[in-house]
Amino acid sequence: MPETGFSQRLVLALCALLLSFLPTALHAAATVSGVEIGATSVTLRFDQPVATASAFMLSGPRRIAVDLPGARMGRVTASGGLIAATRHGQYDPDTARVVFELSRAAIVSDATFSTDHRALTLTLKPVDESLFARAVRKGRQLFGLDDKPVDTRSAQRGGITVPLDPPRPLPVPAITGARGTKRPLVVIDAGHGGHDPGSQSTDGRYREKDIALQIARAIRDELAESGRVRVALTRGDDRFLVLGERREIARRLKADLFISVHADSAVNTAARGASIYTLSEVASDRVAAQLAAKENRADILNGIDLGGENNEVSSILLDLAQRETMNISSQFATLLQREMSPTIHFKDDAHRFAGLIVLKAPDVPSVLLETGYISNQDDLGLLLSSQYRRNIAIGVRKAVEIHFARRLAGE
User: Fold this and answer.
1) How far apart are CA 175 and CA 245, in angstroms?
2) What is the pLDDT of residues 245-284, one digit of tens each?
3) DSSP structural state of residue 153
4) Strand 71-73 and strand 185-190: pairing?
5) What is the mean pLDDT of residues 392-401?
6) What is the DSSP string of 70-139?
7) Confidence at residue 55, expressed as pLDDT on a 0 to 100 scale
8) Per-residue pLDDT tens for 9-54?
9) Mean pLDDT, residues 224-228 taken together
10) Which of 57, 200, 255, 313 has CB atoms 3.0–4.6 Å from 309's, for a disulfide?
């Protein structure tokens, strides 16, 4: 799903990074001391000034998430108006996150800091489902960047204003491998990245985002070398992409297959083995309905413009496409496990189903590959091995080649 420019989405990471270099006296975080909910507004109050904030919408269920760099959560809870419930936690050591569950579809139409930056008021606007879906696709909104700088000498302990470039369209990654646009395109997604490290090893030395990127690169290189498919990475370096962006990159490139690469973790350090996830049946109907309810109904599905159809017809077409895509995804998952199994150990019942956001493109067969447990010492040793990564890549290549050969033969 399209989002605002990449530089905007890194504001939290930049704030956290810059805060880490500040003197201890200035690094102390403000505390979210209260939440007040009106009929169409939410006010967050802090015991010290907070310079910036951001918010983004989430669906399934409908929520508003607010991130506050340089803040820590106090014991607050509230509901009322358009807010059904409030949840909160520490997103990272320097960022508090408050999540408001909505009683009906609503968006943040305005956000204003008080003069002293000790309060942030969000104005909420009830909307229909199509406008809410558009807000989800729009992504993160940033607040406080244009305000007068907060005086850190008067107890500003909670953030830094980072000048940002204007919003830019979602970047399209480079495509390598076979020449010619008629060759199948495989998009490899390295999970996590940037300020989102994913899971970590028990000693904290190794992070999922780094391992996933190394494996994704190995898969890309193996597929490119085969010369039979085109291949692209959603990210080729350590950058953050929201989940919707990852699948939207695949859709924008008109990908024929999407593989998201991850490393699993569990409290039980004995747990080990690879697994493969595909989208669950339950999630498809809601996603199809949201996509069909776009305000301009200009959905493009495999090159077919659904804009001329009404919502009911569009919803049916999208639902049928999603179901077919889910069937293809499930078939590929079975094939992928078969081709990887000679060299990669899989868990029992390794093919699983879940409503994972990253897999919800209605017209791109998608799987999420958990390559092993970063929390297990034996699996971690394998994940750090170049030979293991190559074994994964070879298994993926074989599965991809067989998959497209079958598709070409009409099986």
Assistant:
1) 17
2) 788 889 889 999 999 999 988 888 999 999 999 886 543 3
3) G
4) unpaired
5) 98
6) TEEE-S----BTTEEEEEEEEEETTEEEEEEEESS-EEEEEEEE-TTSSEEEEEEEE--HHHHHHHHHH-
7) 87
8) 444 444 444 444 333 333 446 888 888 888 889 998 888 888 888 8
9) 94
10) 313
Instruction: Concatenate the DSSP letters of all residues of 285-342 into one string.
Output: HHHHHHHHT-TT---EETTEE-TTS-HHHHHHHHHHHHHHHHHHHHHHHHHHHHHHTT
Angle at which helices 311-340 and 386-409 cross, to 10°: 130
Least Cα distance to 2 among 122, 165, 174, 167 occurs for 167
Please state, as a whole number, how many other Cβ atoms lie within 10 Å of the Cβ of residue 163. 6
Contact 380, 373 (CB under 8 A): yes
Measured CA distances, 249 to 58, 173, 174 (Å): 19, 8, 11
Q: Which helix (H) or strand (E) is 401 found in, with range? A: helix 386-409
**Checking DSSP bridges between strand 41-46 and strand 30-37, what pairing results, if any?**
antiparallel
- Contact assessment for residue 70 and residue 30, using Cβ atoms and an 8 Å cutoff: yes
Tokens 């090893």 appear where? Answer: 201
State yes or no: pLDDT of 96 exceeds 50: yes
Q: Dihedrals φ, ψ of 83, to 5°?
A: -100, 120
- The SS3 assignment for 350 reads strand
Q: Give the residue from 395, 393, 336 showing the smallest Cα distance to 365.
A: 336
Measured in degrees and rounded to the nearest 5, phi and psi for residue 276 equal -135, 130
Phi, psi at residue 136, to the nearest 5°?
A: -60, -45
* Residue 56: partners with Cβ closer than 8 Å, 6 or more residues away: 64, 65, 136, 139, 140, 141, 242
- Number of Cβ within a 10 Å radius of residue 289: 16
User: Helix, strand, coil: what percent of the chain each, to 5?
Assistant: 35, 30, 40
Distances (CA, A) of 246 to 138, 297, 368, 377: 14, 22, 12, 30
Distance (Å, whole) CA 102 – CA 112: 20
Q: How many CB atoms lie within 10 A of CB 260?
A: 25
As a whole-number percent, the residues of the chain with pLDDT over 70 amount to 74
